[in-house]
Amino acid sequence: MSYYEFFCPVKVIAGQAALEHVPYEFSSRNCKRPMIVTDKGVRAAGLLDKVLTAFEEGGMDVTVIYDDVPADSSKQTVKAIAKEYRSKKCDAILAIGGGSPIDTAKAVNILVSEGGDDIAKYSGAGVLTRPLKPFIVIPTTAGTGSEVTSVAVIADTEKEVKLAFASSFMLPDAAVIDPRMTLTLPPHITAATGMDAMTHSVEAFTCMAKNPLSDAYASAAIKKISANLPKVMKKPDDAEARLEMAQASTMAGIAFSNSMVGLVHALGHSLGAICHLPHGLCMSLFLPYVLEYNLESIREPLSELLLPLAGPEIYAMTPKSQRAEESIATIRKMRDDLYRDCKLPRTLQETGKVDKSQLDRIAQATIDDGSIMFNPREATLEDARAVLEKAWG
């Protein structure tokens, strides 16, 4: 690695009472009419109330709340929210939720800043040329890392593809990490989003564009996830462990947005678009199978990851020549534990939502996905199909 770039200008506000700082962040940017973008689950869990209380105590009103973002957001949703933003003369966006509300809000910010109704024309990398409207994110899951990334994915439901957007202008102004926002996360979402963050970290540490700074964030995130995901599965109201998971997710987001990802994400994007499965689950499904496929290309970095994955005792006891395989075994055990705890599927067959006849189509979409460019081992259509076959179960 003779040359690399590392960029993360997002202000991180983390810890107890982090929410109470949100009104100040908007007022310091001269914003008076913020719009909240969220989903029904956030409102039903009472999380929106905590944010609105913070606004009230901070002496600021929320102009409009859009709480109808679907789990797999689409072009139509983005268009509807942008219309609402314009009609209410809003001047800033606050996204509250997991990956879907955050990615949706990023896309809305593109439309209200750049103009137009069709978000598809802004897809790709480097299309945006100027700063967007003020934008703050409060994540309610510890997995996507979207609060610190310059990318978003929106579904084109008519074409059954995921539209990818990438630009440093999409980065939020601030990410607010408050453990109160993840305490009510159900076990299966806790598990899936935890594995999402793990995948971000592992792919960041092993893909072609890795660098020393992304490595530092990725390995630190893996250590936090390995230590704290079992804790929050056993004791969901452990605020300290929840904060550790939320911070790990943010760190993983910083890592992969600077190092890129690989075949796990290419497969996951394709599976999600065709079979409508949650992104975190897709990541968990493919992670060990892709690591096995990439093994001889990533043996050294994967061996290093055994230390944050399994701890110093297992690392020291494992012969150097076997550490890469032991890292994969540790991830497999983690998935087995999550299956035991909340039935998080480990194979495509266990999801009950994938038909084997769809594998060829998923493989074709995988080869066309941009994430595959940074995978450490080149993958053909036949290779992608072979990995899918192994992941079938």
From TrEMBL:
CDD domains: Fe-ADH-like. This is Alcohol dehydrogenase class IV. SUPFAM superfamilies: Dehydroquinate synthase-like (SSF56796). It holds the Pfam family Fe-ADH. Its cofactor is Fe cation. Residues 190-392 form the Fe-containing alcohol dehydrogenase-like C-terminal domain. Keywords: NAD, Oxidoreductase. The keyword Transmembrane does not apply. Residues 9-179 form the Alcohol dehydrogenase iron-type/glycerol dehydrogenase GldA domain. Belongs to the iron-containing alcohol dehydrogenase family. GO terms for molecular function: alcohol dehydrogenase (NAD+) activity; metal ion binding.
